[in-house]
Amino acid sequence: MAIDLVLLQPPDTVSWNPTMYFPLSLCYLASVVEKAGYSVKVMDFRRAVGDLPEAKFYGFSCTTPQVVQAKEIAKRVKGITIAGGAHPTLLPNDCIKHFDYVVVGEGEKIILDILAGTVEKGIVKAPRIKNLNEIPYPDWTKVAHPFSNTLFAGERYGEGELAATLIASRGCPFFCAYCANLFRSPVVYRSVENIIGELLVLIEMGIKHFRFEDDNFTIHPDFAELCYALKDLNIHYKCHTRSDLLLSKKAQLLKVSGCEECGLGVESADDRVLKINRKHQNTEQNAEAVKILENSHIRAKTYFMAGLPGETEETLQLNMEFMRKNKPDKWTLSTFSPYPGCDVFNRPGYYGIEITNFDWSKWWNFCVDSFNHIIIGQTSEEMWSRYKRFYSWLREEKWR
pTM for the complete prediction? Predict the structure, then answer.
């Protein structure tokens, strides 16, 4: 008997460890669908495409670089196909010829309408979900290996205890030009009770290490209450926030609640680059945030991005100076791709770039051998050389 719905996670062909974490979206969808009485199976193709069971519906969760393989897999199935996630939401017209349904927005409610046959095929716009507490917890049991021993340690930092991801909110109130965030304002928050309830389920599964995926964990309206509730669980976690949102008092609450690491989106130590990209914070604030975390005995992880509009050789020198001076505990250097939906993609000329490659399979935030754009007035080789020099310099860690 055919399964009602098969949910597929397409391969990740670039990341150093594709199985570091499993996307929350499919686990949420699986839980919603099963609660409604449908049969559902999740196919974990993060490393490679495998055999597909027979089903009435096939749902694909697609980021931009994964959509190419999702389109190919969709050709092989006989059931009705559904595409959702970042790329279909931001570029639905790129997907509609390849899938029966293209969901724009959050999928937890619209998926039930699709399965019930009450929605016509085509591009389907889903309204924002205003009450996240109504969504059942993600069903981790549908994935053979949902947790990872490299997640808590992080990229390049070895192995640690098994860890899981979770999210306390959806949305971001900021408008950085390089970001293709699916959901802007309003930011929708889960209640403290709802968050703690999910953590208790995961603790029962043997997990005590977590990564909160919120863009800005520290802006939860009940932040202090959440931190005290987390303290009672005696867990270990890491999170992310903006430097200008990290006050000493909040860092102290993070430490008390079990936070061991906080990621900061520094992106660049060149204030001119930050201004061009509408980051609305500066290098002084980033340096102060690293110091606040150090004083609170929380690891500071700085995220840098190479290839941003406005970057020059001077940017590289300023980035190195920032690392020498502030010495954060950990770092990540990604490569900027002007993802569909971000303002740089929509207005490349305004930001002084030219998009040179529209092969979506190359659009990772850790590009392999070149950028998908050029900064006007620079060559691709110059940009890639600057990235490699910074990456090699960071890896040597002589700046410590």
Answer: 0.95
